[in-house]
TrEMBL record:
Its main location: membrane. It is found in: Endomembrane system. Pfam families: PEMT. It is a multi-pass membrane protein. Its EC number is 2.1.1.100, 2.1.1.334. Keywords: Membrane, Methyltransferase, Transferase, Transmembrane, Transmembrane helix. One of its GO terms (biological process) is methylation. This is Isoprenylcysteine carboxylmethyltransferase family protein. The keyword Transferase applies.
Length: 209
């Protein structure tokens, strides 16, 4: 596979994610939290879920400030990219977990996070082939020092030596902000589904912790 054909086929990736929406909706439509809404564990999970979603949106926008307009043209190793090679995927998976928590279920949150991790791991592995072809030894050195998914919090001497200015691409940032806002829909969505379940218009088949 050449670098040209392998590089970041965004439209195909987004098409796949939209096709996966029914799979992701199934748990929240067929299940209900085993914790009543007024209990502290349920309220704590909902608050944590909201926090994860906000971090997801902010993190994706942060990554966009560094990669917007530079993707495939430069090897980005600064900003969030000095902690993980795929910050957009990490924050997206965190947002998926947050969606599960807003529905008051650790099980759904774990399933969503695992789904995001597996999907993005596959995508990033294909992208890695393209980046290796584009940037060669520089990319291989970057891979050696920075993990693919889970962030590395410590800094190395290379981080200081390779500081580059942050660029601002308003079009890329706007696109990322709009895409990320879909995660925020989970908050009113969880309230709507809870109301439908309380009115017995939506009957859950499972009660999940």
């Amino acid at each position: 596979m050449s670098a040209t054909t392998a590089v970041f086929q965004q439209s195909k990736r987004m098409r796949f994610l939209w096709l996966a929406v029914p799979l992701l909706l199934t748990p929240i439509l067929l299940a209900q939290s085993a914790w009543p809404p007024e209990t502290r564990p349920r309220q704590g999970m909902e608050f944590m879920g909201f926090a994860f979603v906000v971090i997801c949106v902010a993190g994706r926008c942060w990554a966009s400030l560094y990669i917007g307009g530079r993707k495939n043209r430069e090897l980005i190793t600064t900003g969030p990219y000095k902690y993980t090679r795929n910050p957009l995927y990490f924050f997206s998976s965190l947002g998926l977990a947050g969606i599960g928590l807003t529905f008051g279920s650790l099980a759904i949150a774990a399933f969503y996070f695992l789904f995001g991790y597996l999907v993005f791991a596959y995508v990033s592995a294909r992208e890695s082939i393209a980046l290796d072809g584009l940037f060669g030894d520089a990319y291989r050195e970057y891979c050696h020092e920075v993990p693919a998914f889970f962030p590395r919090l410590r800094r190395s001497a290379r981080d200081v030596a390779h500081q580059s200015p942050m660029t601002f691409n308003p079009v890329a940032l706007k696109r990322t902000a709009i895409d990320s806002s879909c995660f925020l829909l989970a908050i009113p969505g969880s309230e709507l589904i809870e109301s439908l379940q309380s009115a017995r218009l939506l009957k859950p088949m499972l009660h999940l912790f």
